[in-house]
Every structure is written in C-alpha cells, then in structure tokens.
Design a protein that fits this description.
By secondary structure, the chain is an alpha/beta fold. The protein has 2 domains: 8-254, pyruvate-formate lyase- activating enzyme (Alpha-Beta Horseshoe); 303-379, Arc Repressor Mutant, subunit A (Orthogonal Bundle), CATH 1.10.10.920. Helix content is 41%, strand content 19%.
Length: 381
Amino acid sequence: MSDDTPDLGLYCHVPFCASTCDFCAFYQEKPRRGDLDRYLEAMELEFARLPVHRTIETVFWGGGTPGLLAARDLERLGRSMLRYCAQPPDEWTIEMAPSTVKKDKLAALKAMGVTRISMGVQSFQADLLSSLGRLHSPKQIYQAWDLIEQAGFDSTNLDLIFAIPNQSLDAWQSDIREAARLGPDHLSTYCLTFEEDTALYVKLSQGKVRIDEERELEFYEQGWDLLAEMGYAQYEISNFAKPGKACRHNINTWRMQEWIGCGPSAASQYGRQRYQRPASLDRWMAGMLAGVPPMEDRFDLDDRTLFADSLVFGLRMNAGVRLEALKENYPQAGDVVEVGNLLASLQREDLLTERASGIQLTRKGQLVVDAIGARILEVMQ
C-alpha cells in the first residue's frame, strides 16, 4: 500500500445461524444445504466484481456465524475470494462461536491465510449465557480456545458482553479476568443493547428486564480500568489490544475509508457511495445470478457527510482526530464554524481535550460518546 492510498477493506456476511440469540438483530438464516450451495455460488459472483486496480488489505468475515460452515465450505468460500484478490490480505479475520470451532475448520482457515480469529464468548458463566440465548457452554469455550491456540493464528480476539440482566459488577470483573487469563491479544467488550425485533426487546417491552443507565456506566468504567490493569490498551470505546494488535479492518471503517461488502445485508462504502445488499438471501441471490447486484439505501457521499462521520467515529478512538486534517481531506465540507463552536463547548464541559496530536474525548466524554455524536450530526445538518 502506498502512503497516499488508504486501506481497502472487504467485509463478507455469512448469514447462517443455528439459532437466534436474544440480543441479536443481524440478518440471519437457518443453514439449509441448498441455501448454502446457492450462497457460495452467489458469493463467487460477488467476488468476481471486486476492483482489479485496488489491493484489498483487510478482510472480515462476520455474520451470522461464519464458523458454522463446514471446513469444505469455508475453503470454497475462501478460495473463491482469494481468486479475485490481487494478493493475500494483510489481515483476515473470521468470527467464530465456541460451539462451531473444530480442528478441521481451523486447519482450513490457517492454510488459506486467515490471520485472526474472533470468538464470541459473551460470558464465562452458564446462567448469563443462558439468559442471552447462547448455545455454547463455558466448557465449550475452553475446548474451542485450546483448539484455536494449537492452530497458531497470528492474532486472537474474544468478545464479551456486559450489563446483562442480573449480572453483578463482580461477575463482570470475573469475566474480564478469565478472558485475560486465556491470553488473547485483543478483547472487545460490548454493552448489551435492546434492538427492536429481538427477543430481548420483547422482554423489555413486557417489563421482564429493564435498562439501568447508571449501572451501565459503572460496568463501562470498571471494565476499562481492569482491562488497563490487565495490559490491554483501549484504542476505541469497546476495543482493547496488546501493542500492535489493534484490528486494522475496524480502524479503516471508523476512519471512514473504503470497504466493500459482499453477501446479503452487507454494507459498502466505496467510490464515494454508500449502499447495502438486501437483507434477504433470495433477493440477493436472484440479483447476483441475474448479473444485476441489488443495492438498497444507495446515496452519494459528499465532503460534508464524510467530514461529519469521520469526526463522530474518529472521536470514538482514543487517538482522536485532527480537525485540520479533516478539513484538508474534505475541502468541500462547507462552513464548519458551528462544529468548532460545539467542540469548544464540549471542552468547557470537560468532555473533550485538545492535545498536539488532535482532539480526544476525556473519560467523562467517552461515557456519553453517543450523545456527543448526535450533537455533532445535529450541527452538521
């Protein structure tokens, strides 16, 4: 990659899941053999449309549950992707659930050049896993981790969830310590969210669970402090890594660079456009087979939109953003005086600080990052 050419990322959505977790709002389907074969055929058609003049530096397979695919299907999907890449990606991440991790799958992934395994642990405690609708047990986590370590991937990540109903702060700290004990070089921690059209949202509407925002803030802060103590440096609100192990693919996305999404419901930001494939296996496959890739919610990106989004997502990262660099990158963003006034106000409120390297959120600001993003978008309208 040349110094003046940003990374190009490739996201592949594998929509198959054995069951739907109570908190999950991602598009997914049951893994039927016929649908799997048609999916793999249509994905090759997607890959054949990748730009030949650009190098794809990072790849991320998410879902769904990519690891649900059999070893032969993972290999077919990976080999068809590599066929249309100018060179193997520098970073290639695959999401896996503990119950799907098998020795033959890991061997196939390693042989193809996968560099990073991201496993959705959520918790090490059986009662909390059950309350989330997860299929795996704590025992399966350890069995899967042993296999992943034996396979010897360059990098590993574990996902954890906090603020689960009936989860204590002690239980949260216990999960962090146990994850760190296993020794991944990256940890992601996500506050449980109540998305519409999920079983968890139904429980919320029925009064079976409730949102406690003050309690959530305690989980955030205790988690951040403990992760730092465990040697994991925060580089984004929800992401922590050992030195040199931050996820390049996600950083590329937060910096509003370019990525291409393949598969049903996958989103893209490429060629100054944003668009999404339909969240329907049938509609997506029909379009791909007809040679007319279906696009939804497509719109052109102007400098003002990219400036605003780069600022909002850039502030989620501990490195922060350089306002002057954003102005240089997006010279047609128009008058951004109101943004400057807002940032000055945020600094007076002790939500933001300015250093030689740029502007960054304070700890207080990180705790209300979504509200700050909303304020930025409001003044940029």
